[in-house]
Amino acid sequence: MTEHILRMSGITKTFPGVKALQDVNLAVRRGEIHAICGENGAGKSTLMKVLSGVYPHGQYDGEITFEGRRCEFGGIRDSEHAGIVIIHQELALCPQLSIAENIYLGNERAARGVIDWNRTNYEAGELLKRVGLRENPTTTVSDIGVGKQQLVEIAKALSKEVKLLILDEPTAALNDEDSAHLLDLLRGLRDEGITCVIISHKLNEVIAIADSVTILRDGQTIETLDMAVDGVTEDRIISGMVGRALDNRFPPRTPAIGEEAFRIEDWTVYSPSQPGRKVVDGASLTLRRGEIVGLAGLMGAGRTELAMSVFGRTYGVHISGSIFKDGRPIEIRTVQDAIKHGVAYATEDRKRYGLNLIEDIKRNISAAWLKGLSRRGWVNEYEEYRVAQQFRASMNIKAPSVDSVVGKLSGGNQQKVVLSKWILTEPDVLILDEPTRGIDVGAKYEIYTIINRLAEQGKAVLVISSELPELLGLCDRIYTLSEGRVTGEVPREEATQERLMYFMTKGQE
Amino acid sequence: MSSITPADVEVGAKGGGGAPGRPGRVSLGGLSLNLRSSGIYIAFALIIVLFSVLTDGALLQPQNISNIIVQNSYILILAIGMILIIIAGHIDLSVGSVVAVTGGLSAVLMVNMGMPWPVALLITIAAGALIGAWQGYWIAYFGIPAFIVTLAGMLLFRALTLTVLGNQGIGPFPDQVRTLANGFTDGWLGNIGLGPLGGADLFSLLVGIVAIAGMVLAQWRSRSARKGYGQAVDPLALFVLKMAAGAALILFLVVQLARFKNLPWVLVLLAVLVLAYSLMANRTVFGRQVYAIGGNLHAAVMSGVKVKSVVFWIFVNMGVLSAIAGVIFAGRLNQAGPTAGNSFELDAIAAAFIGGAAVQGGVGKVVGAITGGLIMAVINNGMSLIGSPSERVMLVKGAVLLAAVAFDVWTKRRAGTAR
Question: How many domains does chain B have?
């Protein structure tokens, strides 16, 4: 019998009208890496919030036993005191403070209220060595990348004498290299005796790192699998998450590719924050009607920057290069120009750039096409409603009505609203930036179906994605971007993950 | 009296015909759903009832109603401009000073220079627009936070006021301007007897009836159109109830005013402004873009909203409305003074927030801001009627502002945890 460091049994948590967790059980063995998998809305984050005291004792039913003691946490402080530290998906660092200040925030190295800076910086330096981050502890956090910030979060957790470390989607924002480093670090921590619970959508990582995996679905525990014993595969986990075997993650499609629709040539963009740095360097791309083209690249390769600079110069300075639509040169200086020329861009960060979260579905869908729904400046609200209803049906947006506030929808449904908004502008060219980021497996399939439908209608689609299997499953042709330059163009037949990765890392020595 | 009956009969007939089905559940759901947005109107009604009782009915006497409207008209006009700015996620601290400087300018033009009043009024409004453009430029195109720009404006335009006025009050104003600010419509059609209520101005009553008919017709047409598009509408019984309540409110107001001295001109002006700006906010592309900017600035940019231009123009608009308020305020006092408009900005901002605007922007209604302004007006008026000292009035107004925003934050948090 192995010893369990944590046992959560019969956890039930209800919100008004919704049962988020129903009789959930979780048992984590000491010194293992335990993954929790489930679709969005399955209850993973809620479960972790119960564990860490965000929902204090009394707001849920069930029992938590940690290190053999029953726990009744009244808040995060209590759980941290017991040695449970949670690192959220959205990092909770203060960007203007130094690494050391962040590590000891709320836990200052001080004597009689006066901070001992030498000790702070020295001990922070030791922690940074432990997590393998070669940065000066006095460096400001906003000056280091997301991958390194994640390491700072872990260093912060280590400073609190953590026994159980919970990571919520730790690699969601990281490139492959940083992800690999992070996973190595977790293995190292496990060897030091720190137990980890990791929530992840990236099943290949789960397979690579976890010792056991618990699958949640609809607020209930489906099963806990031991990786060593059960011979777990990605498909095995997916079938547990969605409750059905998923034979094909991508809907079938027969491409019908036509004339050239959109071309950019020698596109160069400079960084607005670091003068003189080329973020996109002489990039040229061609999209054809009815074609789904992929754009692959590691974090920082300039994918989003390329897309946004094309889309009405919403990113970058000193932009040069030419754009052709249907073979004729066009100028896109503003977002209005882009919409006028039939170019749409669905952002990777829908909460920040894509949606007005406090507004309802219909007004979000109409936001980029008010001109088309209005006459002499007056919006035709009935037409707006009708159009929104149409999209709700055709895109299968799950909401009580088009008057529902967008902020309350799930990620997948929010993404469908973003897509509806841009499809309404009747574009010929759609640039979809990470169209399936942070949405669950079932909804991904629906998004893929929508993308296929757009291509069938003769539109040119450019899909930017960090998930290579997604690009391989979806695209007719894939461009690779590395350090702002187009380093490869691979047709579907020749595309493999290895080949793409080779081009994506080209010139990075 | 005879003109009122048809509306009554019609209302009754619809109510009789629309009862079947399951209106209870739907209307109940509708009512409970809208608690957050309708809370302000319920609160307003309760405050009126409270002060009616406390003042033994003096609050709702014809002359007092007229006073409340005339004494607060300029704040309400400012609140209309302010709510747009707050919806867009900005703030304007300078409106009090702009009221003073435009009032002063109009006095110089009309009194010192003897310019014809319509010309002077137009020049003053243009000056207001120019002031708005000045602030809008720094905020929208130069990128300085509105808080700073308008804080500077508060000082700048107060200084300009003192310069323009030479540090003294200027008056008296031409009669026409005083009438606009303080006077009443003429009794063109003479008086009519209303039985026990005494005589009342027929013209005012007719205006009221036309307003009611217009409201019912517009709402009915909108409802039919919605139904035509398969949209959910209030059940008929609830619709009739709402219309009846609205009609009763307008009728009561008009009858009381007609019994006193006809309609105040500023009420006519206010009604036109409220109607126009409500339509603008809800139904025009420009209005939608204001909400989009306040709701999520980045998303608005990425949706092709010309954010800078929209922000610029709402400040120009604020300048115009401030100029109108400035002339009305000066005309009412019959003098433009160096301290005019002191702390008006705070009243206008408070009206917007009491009226349901969100601190982060993106939320708010013109009618809400007007209601917020009226809540403060009624508190002011009611408390002075019962002889409360001014410090207590201030105390209550502060508490009401805090409570209103606390309620807003609380309902939002509840909605948040229910996710």
Answer: 1
